[in-house]
Design brief:
Shape: elongated
Number of strands: 0
Number of helices: 34
Largest sheet: none
Strand content: under 5%
Length: 636
């Protein structure tokens, strides 16, 4: 770009370029007052002290009436203050004094329209400004600054495709214009043409490697592409170049948050806010960070602060929605309902908002209103199974069981493996006394891993409630329900029921038929455990080979699985456990491993002969009276 640029470039450019090719003020050995004032005017112009700069340029012209550059610079300064009449007068005089000057290669009419547009843009009147820039281009097509300004205008108006065309025109006249390449990258970024955006910014970076904003932009692009490591690198480089660059801090925080470094992102976002207290997006993401760390109170506070700071901003909708979720998590359902009501008023076609409102109303036990909200959600998004599941629960709480069944069936038709919907469908059918109809969805839920369904099926089969009495199947479902990692009522019930059956077997207190049913049941359990082995190879596994253990999922998982097999009366498994307990496993665990010790204590208390024999060799204090009693009753 030459010294002739009259423009007040927006966003990425300094506001105004003036002639700086002054001769030394002491040339030819004498002081030149005109050039001294001109140099002084340039200094004040660059520090934006326009009134002083104008006075200095006028004095330079007064000292040397034929000084064309003084008039030129005076015109630029006057135009920047909005005095276009004075600017035109100064530029006209400069053109009269030096018609061949490079700095005056622009049409004065085009310059007037261009600079007037800049003034309008500074006042926020983008539409009017763009009209002036278009007028400047009609007068003079080869006006790169006007193309650039118009491109920025189209970016503001969210029309990146047309903005791209104008940036290309600007670059055709000024191919090394760094900020035009930067703006071109922004246009491509807004159009989701990320490869082109990267190419434009890398070109700008090659022209000016020290421009921090370009590094920040590349950091933003890398986040968008999911390359968080690269984003962190670019953002930190930008901060090193320009420590107070807000966008670099913000982009670094986004990358850290996306990468899972949540705690680290908090400090970065707080630094961005320190540099710019108006940065609502930083408050939004600080809330997200605290919510991910489970601190919903802090998250809610950040979102409230953001709404107070910028109640009508671009992030307002998401702030209300997030605040509603935080309030729900903290149990403030009434306040959450108000937030979600605002959300659905703003976006009535957003199913997620209606769903959240419905769930908040259910938490307040406002069943009728919850049903209406959830019905609206299903109308907006009819193929969302979880909406019908929530609606079914709301109907059930209202006592409208027929409607609940219909909603649960709709959820299952959309998602056939939706375990919770299957379980609730079975429960509601049982509540309607449709016991035979309830079995199929309950069985599917149990097969899908619902421990509630497994425990219920066990109870139904043992009592013959809605199904034919079947002790082996009841035992199978008790076994599956007892394998949960959470020691809750369902798990304990399954374990206790099977323990009672083993105890009665050892005492031989069953009839012949009952005895056979129980043995069949334990056989089903053993086969089920083999079918669900925790390691890949199911056949010919040699547990005496140390190399085998190296391929196991987890030592504790394997031990637990083998103990479950032994508790299912698998004689081979019990023998192996006895060997492990006495000798240990080389490289894995020593003799008398704690979990194996607990197994022997348990089976001894149940009256298992092998357990009773082995327990006599153990110097244990805990539970010995109960063990002795069980083993003594076995002798008797």
């Amino acid at each position: 770009m030459s010294r002739s640029l009259f423009g007040f470039f927006l966003m990425f450019c300094p506001l105004g370029v003036i002639a700086k090719t002054l001769e030394e003020p002491w040339s030819s050995g004498k002081f030149d007052a005109a050039e001294a004032h001109a140099r002084l005017g340039i200094d004040f112009f660059l520090t934006d002290e326009l009134d002083v700069a104008i006075d200095a340029f006028r004095e330079a012209a007064h000292q040397r009436p034929d000084y064309a550059d003084a008039y030129h610079n005076l015109g630029v300064a006057l135009a920047k203050t909005g005095d276009l009449t004075g600017a035109i007068t100064a530029w006209t005089e400069a053109e009269r004094l030096d018609p061949e000057a490079v700095s005056l290669r622009y049409s004065l009419s085009a310059l007037v329209s261009y600079n007037y547009g800049i003034s309008l843009a500074r006042d926020g009147r983008i539409e009017q400004a763009m009209k002036e820039w278009k007028m400047a281009l009609r007068i003079q097509t080869h006006f790169p600054e006007a193309h650039y300004a118009l491109g920025l205008g189209f970016l503001v108006k969210q029309n990146p495709a047309i903005a791209t065309a104008h940036f290309q025109s600007a670059l055709s006249w000024a191919p090394d214009w760094v900020q035009a390449h930067v703006a071109m990258g922004m246009a491509h970024f807004e159009s989701h043409e990320y490869d082109l955006a990267r190419a434009a910014w890398l070109k700008a970076l090659a022209l000016n490697p020290g421009e921090a904003r370009i590094h920040a932009n590349l950091g933003l692009l890398s986040v968008q592409e999911g390359n968080y490591h690269e984003s962190i690198k670019y953002s930190r480089h930008a901060i090193a170049l320009q420590p107070e660059l807000v966008s670099a801090h913000f982009n670094l925080g986004v990358a850290l948050l996306a990468k899972g470094e949540t705690q680290a992102s908090v400090g970065v976002f707080e630094q961005a806010l320190f540099l710019d207290v108006r940065l609502t997006s930083a408050r939004l993401l600080l809330g997200v960070a605290w919510s991910r760390m489970g601190d919903w109170a802090r998250a809610a506070q950040w979102w409230r602060d953001a709404l107070q700071q910028d109640p009508f901003g671009r992030e307002t909708f998401w702030l209300h929605d997030n605040l509603g979720m935080a309030l729900t998590s903290m149990g403030y359902f009434k306040d959450a309902t108000k937030e979600f009501q605002w959300v659905v008023e703003q976006r009535p076609e957003w199913a997620q908002g209606w769903s959240q409102l419905g769930l908040a109303l259910m938490s307040e036990r406002r069943w009728s209103e919850a049903v209406r909200a959830l019905e609206r959600a299903t109308q907006v998004q009819p193929n969302w199974a979880h909406l019908y599941f929530a609606l079914g629960n709301a109907y059930a709480e209202q006592g409208q069981l027929a409607f609940a069944v219909e909603a649960f069936r709709e959820a299952v038709s959309i998602a056939p493996n939706f375990v919770d919907a299957l379980f609730h469908l079975g429960i509601v059918l049982r509540a309607q006394n449709h016991l035979r109809d309830a079995i199929d969805p309950l069985r599917q839920a149990a097969e899908g891993g619902s421990r509630e369904a497994q425990g219920l099926l066990a109870s139904m089969y043992v009592n013959g409630n809605g199904v034919d009495r079947n002790m082996p199947l009841a035992m199978l479902w008790w076994s599956r329900s007892s394998r949960g990692s959470i020691p809750d009522t369902i798990t304990r019930t399954g374990k206790n029921q099977l323990a009672q059956l083993r105890r009665r077997l050892h005492r031989q207190s069953f009839t012949a038929t009952e005895h056979q049913d129980v043995l069949t049941g334990f056989g089903l359990i053993r086969q089920d455990l083999v079918n669900h082995t925790p390691f890949q190879s199911r056949a010919n596994v040699s547990f005496t080979d140390p190399a085998v253990w190296n391929h196991m999922t987890s030592q504790n998982i394997v031990l637990r699985w083998m103990v479950e097999r032994a508790l299912a009366l698998d004689e081979l498994a019990q023998n192996l456990i006895r060997e492990w307990f006495v000798e240990g496993v080389v490289g894995q665990f020593p003799p008398h491993h704690s979990s194996l010790q607990q197994y022997w204590l348990q089976v001894a208390k149940e009256g298992d002969r092998v357990g009773c024999e082995l327990i006599q060799t153990m110097t244990l204090k805990e539970n010995l009276p109960a063990v002795r009693q069980a083993c003594q009753s076995l002798k008797n």
